[in-house]
């Protein structure tokens, strides 16, 4: 197994070098040179595995034996040993046709913990084995930053800087990042939106001299390991459904940066018999427009009740486009050049039909999001966070009568109490979240100015 760039101008890499590269040196995204296949017989054998055991089965398909199995096993069990649910990602049955996969039982109460707890262990392992300094640089719309910081805080040989849009994440998300007072953590609060933060990150990773000089490593879902770790819970959820081999199983996935839904696409390409992949977005509905019309065109930014999906430029879209064009790097590169030059990409004809066979999508308005939270709290006593509510709304709109849908609960509702309060529903905060409000914050407010951000990084990384 080797890994290649979507744009075709990087020599094939092994697993660890792919982890360290993050964004490909040619500006593309790293993908496996071939996708491992999982047979129906193998799926049946995996049905009784624990989450950690399943994780090892899937991840070792990609690691090329570069990491001894016992070392990988230790990382997996350490990564998921501090989750509050023994199943790691428990499946909750809401109705005969709807199940909710709870991805918020990690230390920061969000789905990003599932991948980033492992990535923290992996980076620490690589740093020690290779004797390399690792400087992590990332941007967050809220949850990635907290999970990434939690994954590497205090670890020797690693420093982490996270950019987040000032005033555009929830208060709990902000506190989870900025109450960390470890010397290897820097929080930059940027006067701008998430797309601004992400653009700076991409430009810095694209500056190969700067990237090399400061040992920059990626924690965002541009790093393939994030995608790989997330495929595990698709398999795990599917295998928890009784008689799943005989049922039509859909996944409805709240999606902003296209990473979580692309993990499902990868799982399906590996052989997981998913019927529909439903993309749930909010009023920043670039992905819905693409699926329905074939036009991918970033538009105006809108702040919503589901701020982790307040994204117009979805990083992982390039990975999907690569497979859509038949793994043709030249064609993919032409599309991406056109996006940079003209501000949009349009697919039509057979390509659009393929998109609509791969995905369905719904952009959920703020009012519908709150209505869904209220409805499920009243009817089933189950409290949805606003992102999960978008996923449930997509299930209602796009699911068929004889189908079973698994919707991802991507965060604990306590992380987004500003939206929950608007429904009139009260909730009790988990103790670790409540404690955040009494802690001092540590963050640096900066303008959306690349030069200023670079100065901050140079001082921090040394």
Automatic annotation (TrEMBL):
<comment type="similarity">
    <text>Belongs to the threonine synthase family.</text>
</comment>
<dbReference type="InterPro" id="IPR004450">
    <property type="entry name" value="Thr_synthase-like"/>
</dbReference>
<dbReference type="InterPro" id="IPR036052">
    <property type="entry name" value="TrpB-like_PALP_sf"/>
</dbReference>
<feature type="domain" description="Threonine synthase N-terminal">
    <location>
        <begin position="2"/>
        <end position="80"/>
    </location>
</feature>
<comment type="pathway">
    <text>Amino-acid biosynthesis; L-threonine biosynthesis; L-threonine from L-aspartate: step 5/5.</text>
</comment>
<feature type="domain" description="Tryptophan synthase beta chain-like PALP">
    <location>
        <begin position="98"/>
        <end position="395"/>
    </location>
</feature>
<keyword id="KW-0791">Threonine biosynthesis</keyword>
<keyword id="KW-0456">Lyase</keyword>
<dbReference type="InterPro" id="IPR000634">
    <property type="entry name" value="Ser/Thr_deHydtase_PyrdxlP-BS"/>
</dbReference>
<feature type="modified residue" description="N6-(pyridoxal phosphate)lysine">
    <location>
        <position position="112"/>
    </location>
</feature>
<dbReference type="GO" id="GO:0030170">
    <property type="term" value="F:pyridoxal phosphate binding"/>
</dbReference>
<dbReference type="InterPro" id="IPR037158">
    <property type="entry name" value="Thr_synth_N_sf"/>
</dbReference>
<dbReference type="InterPro" id="IPR001926">
    <property type="entry name" value="TrpB-like_PALP"/>
</dbReference>
<dbReference type="Pfam" id="PF14821">
    <property type="entry name" value="Thr_synth_N"/>
</dbReference>
<dbReference type="InterPro" id="IPR051166">
    <property type="entry name" value="Threonine_Synthase"/>
</dbReference>
<dbReference type="Pfam" id="PF00291">
    <property type="entry name" value="PALP"/>
</dbReference>
<dbReference type="InterPro" id="IPR029144">
    <property type="entry name" value="Thr_synth_N"/>
</dbReference>
<protein>
    <recommendedName>
        <fullName>Threonine synthase</fullName>
        <ecNumber>4.2.3.1</ecNumber>
    </recommendedName>
</protein>
<keyword id="KW-0028">Amino-acid biosynthesis</keyword>
<keyword id="KW-0663">Pyridoxal phosphate</keyword>
<dbReference type="GO" id="GO:0004795">
    <property type="term" value="F:threonine synthase activity"/>
</dbReference>
<dbReference type="GO" id="GO:0009088">
    <property type="term" value="P:threonine biosynthetic process"/>
</dbReference>
<comment type="function">
    <text>Catalyzes the gamma-elimination of phosphate from L-phosphohomoserine and the beta-addition of water to produce L-threonine.</text>
</comment>
């Amino acid at each position: 197994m080797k890994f290649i760039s979507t744009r075709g101008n990087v020599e094939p890499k092994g697993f660890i070098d792919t982890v360290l590269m993050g964004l490909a040196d040619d500006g593309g995204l790293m993908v496996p040179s071939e996708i491992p296949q999982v047979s129906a017989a193998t799926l049946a054998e995996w049905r009784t595995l624990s989450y950690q055991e399943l994780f090892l089965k899937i991840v070792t398909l990609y690691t090329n034996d570069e990491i001894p199995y016992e070392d990988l096993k230790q990382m997996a069990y350490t990564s998921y040993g501090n989750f509050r649910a023994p199943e790691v990602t428990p499946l909750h049955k809401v109705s005969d046709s709807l199940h909710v996969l709870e991805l918020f039982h990690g230390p920061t109460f969000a789905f990003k913990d599932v991948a980033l707890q492992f990535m923290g262990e992996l980076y620490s392992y690589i740093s020690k084995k290779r004797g390399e300094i690792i400087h992590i640089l990332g941007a967050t719309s809220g949850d990635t930053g907290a999970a990434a910081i939690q994954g590497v805080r205090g670890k020797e040989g690693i420093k982490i800087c996270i950019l987040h849009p000032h005033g555009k994440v929830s208060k709990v998300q902000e506190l989870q990042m900025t109450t960390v007072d470890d010397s290897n953590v820097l929080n930059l609060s940027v006067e701008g939106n998430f797309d601004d933060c992400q653009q700076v990150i991409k430009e810095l990773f694209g500056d190969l001299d700067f990237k090399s000089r400061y040992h920059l490593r990626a924690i965002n879902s541009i790093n393939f390991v994030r995608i790989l770790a997330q495929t595990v819970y698709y398999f795990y959820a599917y295998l928890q459904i009784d008689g799943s081999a005989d049922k039509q199983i859909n996944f409805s996935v709240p999606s902003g940066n296209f990473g979580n839904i692309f993990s499902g696409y990868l799982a399906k390409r590996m052989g997981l018999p998913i019927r529909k992949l439903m993309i749930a977005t909010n009023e920043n509905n670039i992905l819905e427009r693409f699926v329905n019309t074939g036009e991918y065109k970033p538009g105006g930014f809108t702040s919503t009740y589901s701020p982790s999906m307040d994204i117009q430029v979805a990083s992982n879209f390039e990975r999907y486009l690569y497979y859509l064009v038949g793994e043709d790097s030249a064609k993919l590169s032409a599309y991406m050049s056109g996006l940079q030059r003209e501000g949009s990409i349009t697919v039509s004809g057979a390509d659009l039909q393929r998109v609509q066979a791969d995905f369905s999508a719904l952009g959920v308005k703020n009012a519908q999001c709150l209505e869904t939270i209220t409805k499920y709290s009243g009817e089933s006593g189950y409290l949805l966070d606003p992102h999960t509510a978008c996923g449930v709304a997509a299930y209602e709109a796009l699911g068929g009568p004889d189908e079973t849908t698994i919707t991802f609960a991507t965060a604990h509702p306590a992380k987004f109490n500003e939206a929950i309060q608007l429904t009139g529903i009260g909730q009790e905060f988990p103790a670790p979240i409540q404690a955040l409000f009494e802690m001092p914050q540590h963050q640096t407010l900066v303008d959306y100015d690349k030069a200023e951000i670079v100065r901050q990084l140079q001082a921090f990384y040394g």
